[in-house]
Amino acid sequence: MSDNKWFRKEAPLQGLMGLWGGVSSALSGALPFTGMQATGGQTNTYTVNGENFKAHKFTSDGTFTVQALGTGEQGSQIDFLLVGGGGGGGDGNANGGGAGAGGLLKGVGVTVQTSPGQYYATIANGGEGRGSDQKGYPGNDSNLTIPGMKQFTALGGGGGGGYSGAGEAGGSGGGASGPGNGPTGTAQNVGEGVQPNEPSYPTITGYGNDGGTRGGAPQYGGGGGGAGKIGGNSPQNPANSPEGKGGDGLALDYWDGSPNTYWAGGGGGGQHPNQRSNPGTQTSPQGGGLGGGGCGGGNRSPTGGVPDARDGIPGQANTGGGGGGAADGYGGNGGKGVFVVRYRVDD
């Protein structure tokens, strides 16, 4: 879709009602703060603006268990991110499309409880990149189950376009390829970003963007969409996403407290002639988006001795990054998804 601004609308900082544990006591905000206690996954502690946080990261299926609530309003609240698996990169004759990143769900100030206090997450695998002019496979969905409520889903990313197939829709959409995929510079063959919001739960917001169009001279596939930006070469954003670069992901500090930690970046499009460094970085013209997007391949080495590298680079594991598109090789596989949850602990 051409306008995903509503996917990125910020949610208010309020707790959920109903089965999340009911309305918090009107007096809870006046109580002295004490921290929550919980287990599960890999853990990390850090301090932001004088407040201490504990984070849990799930890179495979697992259960986040709230053992004891704290006091005060923040003593029963969590922030979380859930990312689907990235799509696999496609293969074009010279310009395979980069894959879309997995869709991202962000929860802010969500009220939890201890009865029941188990929140089960399933972490999706990324899609497989393909060769022989085929479009890449889509990523799988990650899910977060809240007992008594519903299953929240972060969609898998769309596969990157191939010579004989358009980019696919997904959490973020796959970039276009060609020329068997239509004219250059048009949006008709890009994959749409379709990660929805959660209208019944205003503190949970969905992020996803469209893939980019393909270019003609030099020949480059469109970049896959990321959680924060559309894929490179899309006519909606040519200045900020040059050539076949993957769309950047979303910066969230939930795991390590750093405002520069990105999640769910799109894969870069393949390009002829090759203009990437080896093995390919996010600063290359056909680089992956920030947040784990894989760099696109190139079917001709530039001067200076950089080796030929036709294959797209895989998306980074546990970011939901999309795989890079191939230039007459194999697209990169999509990165596996992730679930990260954090909460305040005692100062």
Summarize the structure.
Helices cover 0% and strands 22% of the residues.
Explain the overall architecture.
This protein is an all-beta fold. Helices cover 0% and strands 22% of the residues. It is built from no helices and 17 strands. It has strands at 37-39, 42-48, 51-58, 62-68, 77-83, 91-92, 104-111, 118-122, 142-145, 151-154, 204-207, 219-220, 250-251, 262-263, 271-272, 326-327, 338-344. The chain has a 6-stranded antiparallel β-sheet, with no helix packed on it. A 5-stranded antiparallel β-sheet has the order 1-4-8-9-10, with no helix packed on it. Strand 2 and strand 3 (51-58) form a beta hairpin. The chain is elongated.
How are the SSEs ordered, and which strands pair?
Elements: E1 37-39, E2 42-48, E3 51-58, E4 62-68, E5 77-83, E6 91-92, E7 104-111, E8 118-122, E9 142-145, E10 151-154, E11 204-207, E12 219-220, E13 250-251, E14 262-263, E15 271-272, E16 326-327, E17 338-344
Parallel strand pairs: 6-16
Antiparallel strand pairs: 1-4, 2-3, 3-17, 4-8, 5-7, 5-17, 7-11, 8-9, 9-10, 12-15, 13-14
